[in-house]
Amino acid sequence: MRRVAPAIGLFFVAPLVSEFLLGDFPITFLPLLIVLAPMYGGGALLIREVVRRTGRGWPCILTLAFAYAIFEEAFTTQTLFNPNYLHLNLGLLKPAYIPALGIGMWWTVFVLTLHTVWSVSVSIGLVEALVPKRANQPWLGRPGLIVTAALFVLGAVISTRFALKSDPFLASRAQFTWSAIACLAVIVLAFRLPRTTTVQPSGNAAAPSPWVVGAAALVAGSIFLVTPREWAWRAVGIYLVLDVAMIAAVYLWSQRARWDGRHRLALAGGAALAYAWHAFLQAPVVPSSAVVNRISNAVFALALIVLLVIAARRNAAPA
Question: What is the DSSP track for 49-98?
């Protein structure tokens, strides 16, 4: 059991980060994890295990996380194309709408970034930081990998059936086709990236302090979350600048000496803390009292802080 404990942890951490730390669901909806974990947790765990088994690293994780995001939002929920998802009158597609594609660029960039960064990558980063000595090793054998894949498929089917039962909307054939092409292209790209999981430091410059890295992730994540959708194309521009800037910064920092698990934990932790504080500003997607909402936000934020403290101690620099 100890061998697969990190895998089990990731299976449940992913939906907790994706929906509960974000503030979409209050603590009273924790039983919903049974439904959410196969899709979110199964997807994150499957990505992580495939990458680690094939000797690839974080660029591959991020790229496959992007493919996961496309798959979920284009096929299981269809939020990329549904102008009134679940009849909630959210108006997700209105900002920066592109009629020829039937998508809203604001929502497309926003939700794909949420899944790529937080749902998958942050969740993996947090759990791997708890077991630093096994961070680059597979956690599951072949049977466990098969079970994970089966759970992911089951989760996708459940999510799709729920969405169709609640709202019979169907995207066009062209939208499904191009989404499939995009998803497959991203997967192919992921496996064309270098296999190595470590980078050889170049030059004499040392990586910045983990505190600086964590602060950058917190600030970038916070700006991303508070940028108003009403800014439409300006918001899209800000999102893309943040995405590119963080990718470039992390790439450059990771090339330097002394880049290690503390920095990777700082990235995941900073981004997760952006979710935690921002949850206090938004109402959940389900009916709940203000008191329950704030208690839920506080509990999940505190749980995150405890996790970060434990992980930081386990990744402490050698004396």
Answer: HHHHHTT--HHHHHHHHHHHHHHIIIIIS-TTT-TTGGG----TTSTTEE
96: closest CA among 82, 84, 110, 107?
107
The percent of the chain in helix, strand and coil, each rounded to the nearest 5, is 70, 0, 25
Q: Please give the DSSP secondary-structure letter assigned to residue 203.
A: S
Backbone dihedral region for residue 203 (phi beyond 0: left; psi -120 to 50: alpha; all else: beta): left
Domain ranges for the chain:
5-314
pLDDT (tens place) for every residue of the chain, 319 residues total:
778 999 999 999 999 999 999 999 999 999 999 999 999 999 999 999 999 999 999 999 999 999 999 999 999 999 999 999 988 888 999 999 999 999 999 999 999 999 999 999 999 999 999 999 999 999 999 999 999 999 999 999 999 999 999 899 999 999 999 999 999 999 999 999 987 645 455 556 889 999 999 999 999 999 999 999 999 999 999 999 999 999 999 999 999 999 999 999 999 999 999 999 999 998 898 888 999 999 999 999 999 999 999 999 999 865 4
Q: Helix, strand or coil for residue 25?
A: coil
User: Cα-flanking dihedrals φ and ψ of residue 127, to 5°?
Assistant: -70, -40
CA 23 vs. chain centroid, Å, equals 14
What's the predicted TM-score (pTM) here? Answer: 0.95
Contact yes or no for 279/21 (Cβ under 8 A): yes
Q: What three-state secondary structure class fits 103?
A: strand
Question: Residue 98 forms beta bridges with which residues?
Answer: 103
